[in-house]
Design a protein that fits this description.
It is a single chain. This protein is mainly α and 331 residues long. Helices cover 66% and strands 5% of the residues. It is built from ten helices and six strands, in the order ββααααααββααββαα.
Length: 331
């Protein structure tokens, strides 16, 4: 008898009238917003303009969703194209099934298009959004909890995940919550990238490479714990091999990039510094105009005071002359 466990939701969708509200989709959307928000703050700190990250995300996010779905469908084609399956289900992205490898690859392609249109170096943009992507993954993994999917081996640990669904070959019971393990790992990856970027001033794509390497290191052992159907090569799951290969590529890039292009970019967005100077110059000009107007008002006020004083002196002189004339007449 299990003393404690993490309960799974009875359903992953709530209907608001005719509109279905799906937990999986909500997690993805919230993750995207967090990634864009944090990426924007980091981009501004690097000298870029506010809003640039969101503008480029308009390209990166749709490409990432398409790439993530393609990777999942290609690597798990039997779920959609084998006997008794409906190939139309391959388009039902709201039911789950996004491969992070395809999402990052196609998302990078979309980001490259957006950066090219803005004249921005892709590595600098990738460095800015890297920890935000890790946080987005941490949030998105909870979508698997709503769908009761991607769990690990059976266990009776206090933090075991209870699976109640029996669809698609699931066996109700308590299992390792690999979605939670990966979510916590991604949070740690994001914190690591932020710390390392501040400590070592990572640039030219090295913050993003660190994120990729750190994520792959965790994904390899978490993937090894999963029990859902997957293709195997030499006894290892396909995603374990993918994580190992991508990890090596990321580490290689880190080493070679540090030797070839040390430090970080001085300018990440052409024209952003000039725009800031124009704004500052406009503020200074407005201040000078305000000061000039104040000086003019002071001069007018002083002239008015001098005029009043002069008028008063003239009046006293006329009065004295009049008094002297009357005194002479009396004499």
């Amino acid at each position: 008898m299990e003393l404690a466990y993490i309960p799974s939701p009875s359903r992953g969708v709530i209907h608001l009238g005719p509109i279905p509200l799906r937990g999986y989709a909500f997690c993805i959307i919230i993750g995207v917003f967090v990634a864009v928000w944090l990426g924007n703050k980091r981009w501004i700190a690097r000298g870029g303009r506010s809003g640039t990250v969101a503008d480029i995300a308009v390209w990166a996010v749709p490409f990432g969703l398409v790439g993530g779905r393609l990777y999942h469908v290609i690597t798990d084609y039997q779920l959609y194209f084998s006997e008794g399956r409906d190939w139309v289900d391959a388009f039902k992205i709201w039911e789950g099934g996004l491969g992070i490898w395809g999402a990052i690859a196609f998302g990078a392609l979309g980001a490259w298009i957006g950066c090219r249109r803005r004249g921005i170096p892709l590595p600098a943009y990738a460095d800015a959004v890297a920890p935000g992507i890790a946080f987005a993954q941490a949030i998105g993994r909870w979508g698997n909890w709503f769908n009761q999917e991607l769990y690990g081996r059976p266990t009776d640990l206090p933090w075991a995940l209870e699976i109640t669904s029996s669809t698609d070959g699931r066996v109700p019971g308590t299992y390792h919550p690999t979605f939670l393990y990966e979510s916590l790992w991604c949070i740690g990856v994001a914190v690591l990238v932020i710390w390392a970027d501040r400590r070592f001033k990572l640039g030219h794509g090295r913050a993003f490479a660190l994120y990729v390497a750190a994520y792959c290191a965790g994904r390899a052992w978490i993937e090894y714990m999963r029990v859902d159907d997957a293709h195997h090569i030499l006894g290892l799951r396909l995603n374990v091999w993918t994580a190992l290969i991508v990890f090596l590529l990321a580490v290689t890039y880190l080493v070679l990039s540090a030797k070839k292009r040390p430090g970080r970019e001085e300018i990440v967005e052409p024209g952003a510094a000039d725009a800031d100077r124009e704004v500052e110059g406009g503020d200074e000009a407005d201040g000078e105009k305000a000061g000039s107007a104040s000086s003019d008002r002071s001069a007018d006020s002083e002239a008015s005071d001098d005029s009043d004083t002069s008028d008063a002196s003239d009046a006293e002189s006329k009065k004295e002359s009049s008094d002297a004339a009357e005194s002479a007449k009396k004499s």
